[in-house]
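Report of the visiting student (M.T.), summer placement. My assignment was to run the structure pipeline on a short list of targets and document each run. The first record concerns RNA polymerase sigma-70 factor (ECF subfamily).
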Amino acid sequence: MNQHRRPPASGTAAGDAIADDGAAAFLAVRPRLLAIAHRMLGTMGDAEDVVQDAFLRFHAAGGAIDNPEAWLVTVTSRLAIDRLRAARRERAAYDGPWLPEPWTGSDDGDVFTGDLPYAVLVLMERLGPVERCAFVLRELIDMPYARLAEVLGRSEAACRQIVARARRRLGDGQLPAAPADALARRRRHETLMEEFRLALAAGDAERLIRLLAPDATITTDGGGKVLAARNIVRGAGRIVRLVLGVARKLGRGRVDRPARFAGEAGFVTYEEERPVRIVMAASDGERITAIYFVLNPDKLVRMPADG
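After the run finished, the structure tokens were exported:
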């Protein structure tokens, strides 16, 4: 990271000016850092902690950074790798399936021209920390391999191999769409999600079956704090029986509101104006292939109340 440093200025006035400039430089890039960290870590809280730690290190450097954004991306990425190593141990002991917390940060200003679908965030749990970091930086911000090598402390050839291995482990069909296809795919997915929301609200089993791929899956993450299926349920018929059975038990005191997370369509379930569920999904453009119910209250605390 030495190439991003510059000699410090001297004098109190100069130091104050550098501090002000440094804070402004950090604030300008903070939304981008937070989004990168979230895609690497899968939770808003961990992402915020990592970015705050990066800021403290940036502040301690006293303005001796020639390229603040490059320096901050490097430090944030390396801190995220360290946090991921600890998180893997924690998630291994998690009660039931673990799902990423959907992005609830600001989408103002188009932080990225493209993004990683929620289903890809789920699948990225297959990757090791370095693989995940390399994949996010390459796919999300199109980081050049020479720059990626600097961030990871590996050779450029090694970084190419790491990214290629990550792509194989995720499966080509799960990779982000090309920009020309992404908008059309996102619109088809939004239509499917809205139809699913309405069919679920109406209790329409036949319509739900038509919307689901025969081998679709549903994953529910309650974190041991609320009622949730402890295993992934597979098959359209079984999914429909599960979701309609739960809806009948819970009664009519809930309402589903369409929502977007990093631009991706989903919906939020409210009970007495309190968010109790985020629903995301994966689709192939024709049918829904996977459903994700985020029920753990810890992953809902950043959602605003209904109304």
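The chain has two domains: 2-174, 179-299. The radius of gyration is 21 Å. I thank the supervising group for their guidance throughout the placement.
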